[in-house]
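Instructor's aside before we start: the two examples that follow are unrelated to each other. I chose them only because their records fit on one page, so don't look for a connection. First example below.
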Amino acid sequence: LKRLQLPHKLGLCLYGEAGTGKSTTIKAICCYLGKNPYYIDLKNVRTNKELKALFDHVSDNCDSGGVLVFEDIDVMTDVVRPRKEGATEDTVLNVTSSENDRLTLSYFLNLLDGTLCKEGTTFIMTTSRINNLDKDLIRPGRVDKIIETKRCDAFMIKRIFEQIMERNIDPSVLQSVPEFQFRTVEVIFHIFKYVYNKKATDLEIMAPFISGVDSKEIERSNVLAVSS
């Protein structure tokens, strides 16, 4: 990157419905990188200068750097939402001269590019709906990787079951569970109800997912179990 004079930074965007593992993925990424997450609420950022100060603080004061996290970024501010057709990005010169102005997408984009922030900056943004974000915010080169968090496939269900129950799941039971129908959080909380009941059979545990019970019904069952 230095040889090519490209900014040394990492940008990720996670999207998917609630409960599919976006927050958990952020924690896993931070653990892998050996960096702490720093959650930024753009609702409390009024000017371009305030946003840059947050970026600089994390870069300057955090051991091994930190990870700037913008969860549900489209809910926090309208700045990142799609602009009208024909809208263009400002030049770096124009952006730097507007540092004291109200927060703008152009300034935010230049920060994410690495042109106005420290080397080694890492950021992660999440959204439930990728179409809620301006296309320039998530274009290649600005965001290095866009990851969709989906409902559970067979591999995910298998891993969740085996981690919680500490045994292999019966392949025939696993094959009976439909893929991409249940959210990660639903599967985890449901199976966790059996963590101290090792005598329960695989079929007994996974029955609600096999019988075609509505996902919302399982979620309500999980909530009742936790509250009790």
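Example two begins here.
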Amino acid sequence: MDREPAGSAFDRCVPPLGRNLVPARGRPDAKRSIGRHAVTALLSGETAAICLTSVKTSALAISVASVTGIPLALWTSSREFAGKSLLVTVFNTLTALPSVFVGVLLYTLLSRSGPLGGLGILYTWPAMSLGQTLLAFPLIVSLTLAALGRTDVRLRKELTVLGLPAWQSGWILIKEARFGVLAAVVAAFGRIFTEVGSALMLGGNIRHATRTMTTAIAMETSKGEFELGLGLGFLLLAVALAINIGFHRLQEAAGS
């Protein structure tokens, strides 16, 4: 009886498997196809919608955190009270608040069984914005306190002697420390714009609703679409760069 050539049984059972799985991504035609797919996806309207969701979510968060955090830092800086150093230490510690912890905390509060479940905002972009606000708030307070602490002591004494209203004295101090305050806002925006933990937990990465650039990167990478994930990463950096250039122009205008 003639013997079959070695390996023929394997070839007969799974003939295409060995050939097709020999790295498809290593073949030139596959690489070109993947590259075209990544470029097409980056230029699609869905990518623009993802960018818009990221920007509007972070813009609302940084606005709320700035409007509340800067006055609190000013009030804390201009007064002496028991526990002030402890309060400052707490804010400094919260600058390292993990985004995943914020996500878990707010998820517990906003879920149907939670105390704030009646709001019905879980898995919406306002919920993501709320999480980002909690991340940005202590950072703005801490860095603004540091900026105000570097203002001239003589200026504070002059404002006290002049007897100006509290809001007017505060405005003068903020103008004096404007570069540090703007730096605090920029640093806080940079943190929340690129975070993924709370956005994923509170938004759910829902297509056309709560998918942001960072959650899209995480999703595409988990699917093995590394080229698209890298492309979205570079796009994220480009958007962040454009926004930070805007902040820098604002700093220059404030200094002139």
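Confidence is low (pLDDT under 50) at residues 1-24.
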